[in-house]
Each structure stands twice: as C-alpha cells, then as structure tokens.
Specification:
The chain is 36% helix and 26% strand. It has helices spanning 25-34, 56-67, 86-101, 121-133, 177-183, 194-210, and strands spanning 9-13, 19-24, 38-43, 50-54, 75-81, 105-111, 138-147, 150-157.
Length: 211
C-alpha cells in the first residue's frame, strides 16, 4: 500500500473501476492522497502491477468478508419409534440439541412398523412434543409430513444467543453398551438413516405374514 509498493510504475484503477493507465508509482500515490484515499496493490504479480485507489480500511473489511469461511452446515438426524421410552427420548433429544448447538439442521423421523401404520396420528402427537421441547433451541423449517412409512420434520437452530438447552448433555462414554449401539447411527449423515431400518422393517413384516 502507498510507499510500500516497490514497482516503479503501476497500472492504476480508479475507485469507480475506471482504468487510468500506467503511471509512475509516486505520481499515482500522490493522486490517491489528493482524494484522501490510498493506493493499494490488487494484482502484484502482473507487470506492471495493478493498483487501485481506495479507502484502505473499507477495502480491507470487504476483503475479509470475501475470505470468511463458510459454515459447514450439515443435515443431522434422529429417529423415534411410536413407543419410544422416556429415557430413550431424552437421550435422542439431548443429542439433537448438540447437533443444533453446532449449527446443524436436524431431521426428526418417526418410523411406523407393521400395525402402527394404521395409527399414524400418534406420530403427530410425538412431533408436537418434540416441537414444544425444541422451542428454545430451534425453529421448524418443515412441518411434520408423512412419507410412506415415515413421518418427517426438519428443524434449524435459532441464533446462537437465543439457544437454551432443555436436556442434559449426554456423553458418549456415559452410555451403556446397549445404548451406544442403539444411538451411534445418529452421528451419521441423514442419508444413512433409512437403510438399516428398512431392512429390519421388511424382516418383521415377513415374520408377521407367516403368523
């Protein structure tokens, strides 16, 4: 910037983007300062280097916004059954809160098995409870809807300063061996959720047909 520019000549660009041609560096710096601005190298590797007359503070701020890393938002998922027990529900909701606290969206899924398909209204009761429990952590992006044998709802995190956890954090090492086996699939991307359940459901339906 300004006197730090080592090249004897530079190609000058006006604040408006207009090309002003090639000038001696000292002359270009003088013209920038006459406007109360700075001469900043924007393409130092070309010959002659390209410099722009800008407000350096504003230019630096705009560049920092361009370089700001994108948030790595993912879609996480938890899955309930119609008869999910209270302790199991609390563990799943705690893990969902952790996903939300990390800035991820969460897809809540209820799977209906066998005769449960005739009573899918129970699923809406479960989803209403989830929505109520997520009031201080998330907003609903997609209201509960039925998709085949599944009921699905999608939520996204509230702004960080508005989030208040309701459920006690569950540490992986605090879970019993059976719980770890039952819950570890929730660490996966949502695309991996349905495969094993579909196979399990198919096997149970075959068993019911035989009986």
């Amino acid at each position: 910037m300004n006197e730090e520019i080592r090249a004897p000549k530079v190609r000058v660009v006006a604040p408006t983007g207009e090309q002003l041609g090639v000038h001696d560096t000292k002359f270009a710096i003088q013209k920038a300062k006459e406007r109360g601005l700075d001469l900043v190298e924007i393409s130092p590797t070309v010959r002659p280097p390209v410099c722009k007359i800008v407000n350096y503070g504003k230019y630096k701020y705009e560049q920092s916004k361009l370089k700001k890393p994108k948030t790595n938002t993912k879609m996480k998922g938890i899955q309930f059954r119609v008869g999910t027990e209270e302790n199991d529900y609390n563990i799943k909701m705690s893990r969902a809160e952790s996903f939300l606290d990390a800035g991820h969206k969460v897809r809540i899924q209820i799977m209906f098995k066998g005769r449960e398909n005739a009573h899918k209204e129970i699923g809406f009761t479960v989803m209403d409870r989830v929505k109520e429990d997520f009031k201080t952590m998330a907003q609903v992006d997609q209201e509960p809807r039925i998709n085949g044998r599944f009921m699905i709802m999608v939520v996204s995190p509230l702004p960080k300063d508005q989030r208040v956890r309701k459920f006690k954090k569950v540490k992986f090492e605090d879970l019993e061996e059976d719980d770890i086996e039952h819950h570890e699939d929730e660490e996966l991307e949502i695309k991996n959720l349905e495969g094993d359940d579909a196979s399990e459901e198919s096997a149970e339906e075959k068993s019911e047909d035989k009986s």
